[in-house]
Write a structure and sequence with these properties.
The chain is mainly α and 200 residues long. Helix content is 78%, strand content 0%.
Length: 200
Amino acid sequence: MGLGKAIYNGLKNVCTSLGKHNDALYAVLAIAMFKGIMRPTFTMMDKKSDKETKKYAAFREGLTEVIAFGSYIATHAALVPLSVKWAKKAGVSPKKLKNGVSLFSVCLSAGVIIPAVCNLTLKPIMDGVKKLSEKKNKMTKIPQTEIQQTPSLNIKENEHIAENFSQPIKSLLPAEPKGNLLQIMQKNYTANNNGMRVGL
């Protein structure tokens, strides 16, 4: 019960504080922060997309929300302080006018300022990141001219060499004898005895 009560009291204090200081800026800043974290995270978790494509998309989404976050703050800081002067001239409650100006600044940022800033800054920034990435990839890759390639084996040339070597070996071998064993012995005997034939 102690932990549950502490959580309950914490949530109650946060909600009470937000209710007392109700400002449209808090809502859009929270949205921009969560989008800047969650959208790139889910983009990188996509297994169907290419790795480099995911990195590019995630960086672009995160950068867009950073621009949105800064634009909301800048517009709010520029317009809301003027609400006090406008309230005095108009004779209305400064608090009510402040809330109205805060909502107007949020709408102005979302509809005009953020798209304009993104159009002006996103492309140059992404082009610069792409060039740096390509330069890094070129530095890590080994040029093809420096890779030592194993010479290919010329089978036809080796066959020609084998034929040249086989020719003198064949010339040294004795010719194959012709006839049966009796005819060969009679022939050799006749040659050794000066043509005299003995036997049957």
